[in-house]
Each structure stands twice: as C-alpha cells, then as structure tokens.
Amino acid sequence: MINLLPPELLNSMRYARKNSLLRRAALSIAVVLTAVVVTFFGGLLYLRQTSKSLSKQIETTKSQLALQDQTKVKKRVEDLSSTLKLVVQVLSKEVLFSKLLTQVGSVMPGGSVLTALSINQLSGGLDLQAKATDYQTATQVQVNLQDPKSLLFEKVDIVNVQCQSTVTADPLVAKYPCTVQMRALFSKTNPFLFISPTGAKQ
C-alpha cells in the first residue's frame, strides 16, 4: 500500500501517536505513584495507631503488674505485722512455768494430777487438763484453782469432765479414770508472769 499523504502530515501523525503513548505512560506512572504515596502514608498511619495501641497495652500491663506487686507487698507487710504482734503478745504474757507449775501442784486436791497445760490463744489464760480418781475430785480441781488465795486465776471454767471404766491396761487411767478439761484466765495480780496484765514487770 502506497501512502500518498504529504510528509509533514505523516510526521504530525507520528508525533501525535507518540504523544498519545507518552500521555498514557505519564498517566500510568502518575497512578502508580499516587498508589505508592497513598500506601506509604496509609501504612505509616497504621503503624502509628498500632504503636499507640501497643503502648497503651504495655502501660496497662505495667499498671496491673505494679498493682499485683503492691498487693503482694501489702500482704507480706500484714503477715509480718501479725507475726510481730504475736511475738509482742507472747512476750507480754510470758509465763514463769517452773513457778506456775509448782503453785498449781500445791493447790491440786488429793486424788488428782495435772496432765497438760498450754497457753490459750494468748488471751491471758491457759488450757489445763487434769486426771482424778472420781467425778467429785475432778470438779474440786476447778474450785481449788479458782480460789483467790492461790493467786493463780481470776476465773476457771470446766470445759468437759469424762470418767472412763477402771478396767483398762493403762495404769494411769486405772488410777485416775476421770479427766477434766478447764480454761483458766490469769489473775491480774498473778505473780507468775514476766509482765503482768496491767503492764508492770514482775
């Protein structure tokens, strides 16, 4: 096919085609660049938001850990405080057991023996257990211990009295079949404490 168009028109058409291609290429590049810029700034914004969210989570976690540590420390302080209070109470009610036992033994009625003695929850008294030959003697133990002349206890309550059969292989039970449990409150003038209930040293 022979092209009879003038050379100037042919050149114009060629340049027009090239310009059209260049415009399309420039538009494509602009679109790609716009997409890259949008993606970049979108990613940057997302990273900032994610960073802020993580920072908040970290602060929340730190606060929770700090609160947990404070709770643990508070509990430890309370435990130490309770222990210290217990030590103070023990020292404030320290009993001269050697003298106390001697005095208790001296007021026990005939036919009875003291078998156990322990501090009663640091409440200013003792739990006592004695064995007796019969029920009457067991109750007499309480009467003798509560006698003001003994200088021992302000009040003695019988918690329980039990009498067993004398037919037993245990020689102690055979001789003293009755057991009496008592709870005694120290007298305010008890001379057998390092520190008296009123706070004065003996």
Number of strands: 4
On the 0 to 100 scale, the average pLDDT is 78
Shape: rod-shaped
Low-pLDDT regions: 194-202
Strand content: 15-25%
User: Do you know the CATH architecture of the domain at 97-186?
Assistant: 2-Layer Sandwich
Please summarize the sheet with the most strands. 4 strands, antiparallel
> Which CATH top level class of the domain at 97-186 fits?
Alpha Beta
Helix fraction bin: 55-70%
Find the CATH topology of the domain at 97-186.
Answer: Gyrase A, domain 2
Task: Provide the succession of SSEs.
Answer: HHEEHEHE
Structural class: alpha+beta
Strand order, largest beta sheet: 1-2-4-3
Number of alpha- plus pi-helical segments: 4
Tell me the Rg in angstroms: 49 Å
Q: What is the rounded distance between the termini? A: 138 Å
General description of the model:
This protein is of the alpha+beta class. Among the domains are: 63-92; 97-186, Gyrase A, domain 2. It has 4 helices and 4 strands. The protein has a 4-stranded antiparallel sheet with strand order 1-2-4-3, covered by helices on one side. The longest helix has 86 residues, at 7-92. Mean pLDDT is 78; it is low at 194-202.
